[in-house]
Design goal:
Strand content: 15-25%
Largest sheet: 8 strands, parallel
Helix content: 25-40%
Bound molecules: D-xylitol-5-phosphate, zinc ion
Strand order of the largest sheet: 1-8-7-6-5-4-3-2
Number of domains: 1
CATH class: Alpha Beta
Number of strands: 8
CATH topology: TIM Barrel
Length: 222
């Protein structure tokens, strides 16, 4: 199973993002955290920033929308060129219709759940999505501790994805380190977001290599 390492630029230097992107050239995708001060108590950037970021990196953008009313706003991020657009289940009015719209525009469609949100209601909807994001911290800020009690959701998802035979990526986001990435990979994740452990622990390229090796060592085979 392929392992993907998606650094989050939330912890990068916002005044030097072109340089910060150049430091993660060995990543698989760039995780872009869009926050609106409503769905989460923090504010980052919007669609124009996504367009600007895409102009200065060849890496695909993995946009994580922590915003209210994604039904209205998410399609704009797909039109802006995002490779994947992930919205929160808790915020969407019609998750299936929105995912279909995102796919029609040409993006991979992702659905995210907060740590306290059950995954069972979404298992039968899996064919509508290309990615499921299991939040391993409360969304809003980088640098928080991994919540291990979220891991059973990955087991349920991994079983359902294997049974479906579909190419659905299972992503974790929040508190991912060399230690916790092994736990998440064991639980069934294949796509790993890491912010502070990539940008705050020395050279980002070395950190990406360490995370990738740890994830591969614990990845489900087949
Ligand atoms: C948190 C964001 C994360 C954040 C992760 O709400 O969705 O993507 O950047 O940061 P770390 O890896 O520091 O927990
Ligand atoms: Zn994120």
């Amino acid at each position: 199973m392929a392992v993907r390492i998606n650094p989050s630029i939330l912890t990068a230097d916002f005044a030097n993002l072109e340089h910060e992107l150049s430091r993660i050239a060995t990543a698989d995708l760039v995780h872009v955290d869009v926050m609106d001060n409503h769905f989460v108590p923090n504010l980052t950037f919007g669609q124009r920033m996504v367009e600007s970021l895409q102009r200065v990196t060849p890496l695909p953008l993995d946009v994580h929308l922590m915003i209210d009313d994604p039904d209205r706003w998410a399609p704009g991020y797909a039109q802006a060129g995002a490779y994947s657009v992930t919205f929160h289940a808790e915020a969407a009015t019609d998750a299936v219709a929105l995912a279909r719209t995102l796919r029609d525009i040409g993006a991979r469609a992702g659905i995210a759940v907060k740590p306290g949100t059950a995954i069972e209601p979404y298992l039968e909807l899996l064919p509508e999505f290309d990615q499921v994001l299991v939040m391993t911290v409360e969304p809003g800020f980088g640098g928080q501790s991994f919540i291990e009690s979220t891991m059973p959701k990955l087991g349920l998802l991994r079983d359902a994805v294997s049974a479906s035979g579909l190419d659905i990526w299972l992503q974790v986001d929040g508190g991912i380190t060399e230690e916790t990435i092994a736990i998440a990979a064991d639980a069934g994740a294949d796509t790993f977001v890491a912010g502070s452990s990539v940008y705050n622990q020395g050279e980002p390229a070395s950190q990406i290599a360490l995370l990738r090796a740890a994830a591969q060592a614990h990845s489900h085979s087949g």
